[in-house]
TrEMBL record:
It holds the Pfam family TPR_8. Residues 253-277 are annotated as: Disordered. It comes from Acidisarcina polymorpha. Keywords: TPR repeat. The lineage of its organism: Bacteria, Pseudomonadati, Acidobacteriota, Terriglobia, Terriglobales. InterPro entries: TPR-like_helical_dom_sf, TPR_rpt. SMART domains: TPR. This is TPR-domain containing protein. It comes from the Bacteria.
Length: 277
């Protein structure tokens, strides 16, 4: 009777003694799955990569690289601006994966910017902006985060301008649209003044961090054209905004040419194989 009673305890003791071996094997298997996933990802076989990364996470739920790479693979399969249920579901799975990494380390810049990019791709601009601001809080010298906030502001302002001009059968002329009606101009002032003001500020911050940031210069051009929409009858101010846009465009082209001569094709970080022992 006593021997039967002690058997479960003995079985448990044996199982516990084997646990480190099983766990160690699972960690090796997880690393193997991750490396297979990396190979698939680099070959643009994203579905295969997702399957391997999922297995890596199942084998070792504490493996942070596996969670990050799984989210990255999901994100790669998301089509920007496509609002289908399947695409939005993929985006949410990627966001959820990145958030798991972020919850373990709220200074993980890869997960923060991954979430921000996904929200931008599915048109959730306020969420995208808030996560870019988190990136700036982690790294105040992140020129791309400042740039992206400014880009989001421009994108919303541009869409507002196109929509309002369409109500009076006009298309954007890029010069402040001086022929638009006063009510439309006043509506654009209401909608776009905060966006344009913030956008110019954040693009300038991007340039303060990275003075040769030619993309930021290009959007300084575009944001000044949106600023010209807001002058509402002040023709001198409108012309000054347009001239500022022209100057920024010229500077962007010159800087881009100089940058192309120096640019090295490098992709730091990202999805890499785990060669640790």
């Amino acid at each position: 009777m006593n021997r039967i009673a002690r058997f479960p305890v003995l079985a448990a003791a044996v199982a516990l003694s084997l646990l480190p071996l099983i766990t160690g094997c699972q960690k090796l298997q997880a690393r193997d799955q991750l490396n297979k996933g990396v190979q698939a990802y680099k070959s643009a076989r994203y579905e295969d990569a997702i399957n391997h990364f999922q297995k890596a996470v199942q084998l070792d739920p504490t493996y942070p690289s596996a969670e990050l790479y799984l989210a990255t693979a999901y994100a790669q399969s998301v089509v920007p601006d496509l609002q289908t249920p399947d695409n939005l579901s993929r985006a949410q799975m990627a966001i959820d994966g990145f958030k798991k990494v972020y919850d373990r380390n709220n200074k993980d810049i890869g997960s923060i910017k991954g979430i921000a990019a996904l929200y931008l791709n599915i048109g959730k601009y306020d969420d995208a902006k808030s996560w870019q601001l988190k990136a700036i809080a982690v790294d105040p010298n992140d020129a791309e985060a400042y740039y992206t906030v400014g880009y989001i502001d421009w994108r919303q302002a541009y869409r507002n301008a196109v929509a309002q001009l369409a109500t009076i059968s006009m298309t954007d002329s890029g010069d402040g649209n001086p022929k638009m009606s006063k009510p439309v101009c006043q509506k654009l002032q209401e909608l776009n003044t905060p966006l344009v003001t913030e956008g110019l500020q954040y693009m300038q911050k991007a340039l303060d961090v990275r003075p040769n940031y030619d993309d930021a210069m290009s959007y300084m051009n575009l944001l000044n054209r949106r600023k010209a929409d807001l002058e509402c009858g002040n023709d001198a101010a409108r012309k000054a905004d347009v001239q500022a846009a022209i100057d920024w465009n010229s500077k962007a082209m010159g800087t881009r040419k100089a940058n192309e001569e120096k640019k090295a094709a490098a992709t730091p970080g990202g999805v890499v194989m785990d060669d640790s022992k």
